[in-house]
Write a structure and sequence with these properties.
By secondary structure, the protein is of the alpha+beta class. The structure holds the ligand Nc1nc2c(c(=O)[nH]1)N[C@H]1C(S)=C(S)[C@@H](COP(=O)(O)O)O[C@H]1N2 and molybdenum atom.
Length: 266
């Protein structure tokens, strides 16, 4: 007979609660929660730290990333809401934002292995306008429903051709081997930067926005152009975009360099 198990410690109960919250948030946490039982937690506790996350948890996040990628191929959309419930979110995060930026002189620098293009805000506005009401979810625990308006990043990729090795305009998904696997976005001063996997970047709800809730973007919300990527936590919705670069190597990411999950999927 096995000896009876001692009751779980406060620490392990807190982990269960945390994983419970994550399960409710994410779609891919079912399996992760099973992996992370009480005994797993004991093992986790015996391991060192990797960034801000203990290393086995880091590995679970990588499992989450794989499941997340699989879900995209099934065309998963982020939940949408009626525009009437949209609200202005608080201004959160000002890294890399220049309040004196001149929108007339501003350019969006788009780059890929085949070349580079410099776009004005009118060039971006010439792409099909898309409106979507989705939730902006900050990793700090708050969320807000926002109506975003702008151009799909996928349409920018198609019109510039720069997401493809050949640089040929057209559906970037047409030849998967031609498609660069990552995108790097940064503010004009490069002080805030995010890295995205190409599937999330070309997701139909990923927008280059010039309006929030029917109003032109304010500087602190990222004028003249910001990203809205509802399949990711808010950290990835870069405000005041200066450059977009399609690339073969996984780009550096401001918050990932501080220990947060690089993928940051929802
Ligand atoms: N340039 C820049 N973009 C940024 C940030 C930042 O600090 N600098 N913070 C991010 C975070 S953590 C969140 S939650 C959202 C918040 O967007 P909001 O200020 O429009 O609410 O912006 C994201 N984009
Ligand atoms: Mo955030």
């Amino acid at each position: 007979m096995k000896p009876p198990k001692s009751p779980p410690s406060e620490e392990s109960r807190e982990l269960s609660r945390q994983l419970g919250r994550m399960t409710r948030r994410g779609f891919a946490w079912g399996g992760a929660a099973v992996l992370a039982g009480y005994s797993a937690w004991k093992w986790v506790g015996s391991r060192g730290e990797e960034g801000m996350l203990r290393s086995p948890l880091r590995r679970i996040l990588e499992v989450d990333e794989k499941v997340g990628r699989a879900a995209f191929s099934q065309g998963r959309l982020s939940r949408t809401f009626a525009a009437s419930v949209a609200r202005m979110p608080r201004v959160n995060g000002r890294y890399g934002i220049n309040l004196k930026l001149d929108p007339v002189r501003w350019r969006l620098e788009v780059q890929g292995p085949a070349g580079a293009k410099s776009l004005t805000i009118d060039d971006v506005k010439a792409l099909p306008r898309v409106e979507v009401t989705t939730e902006l979810r900050c990793i700090e625990g708050w969320s807000e429903v926002v109506t975003w308006a702008g151009a799909r990043l996928a349409d920018l990729a198609a019109s510039t051709g720069l997401a493809r090795r050949s640089g040929q305009p057209g559906d970037p998904n047409a030849e998967p081997a031609e498609l660069l696997p990552y995108v790097a976005l940064a503010t004009p001063d490069a002080r805030y930067f995010v890295g995205l996997d190409i599937a999330s970047a070309l997701h139909p709800q990923t927008l280059l926005c010039y309006e929030m809730n029917g109003e032109p973007l304010t500087m602190l919300h990222g004028a003249p152009l910001r990203l809205a990527i509802p399949v990711k936590y808010g950290i990835k919705s870069l405000k005041q975009i200066g450059s977009i670069r399609f690339t073969d190597s996984r780009p550096a990411d401001f918050w990932a360099s501080k220990g947060y999950d690089w993928y940051a999927g929802l």
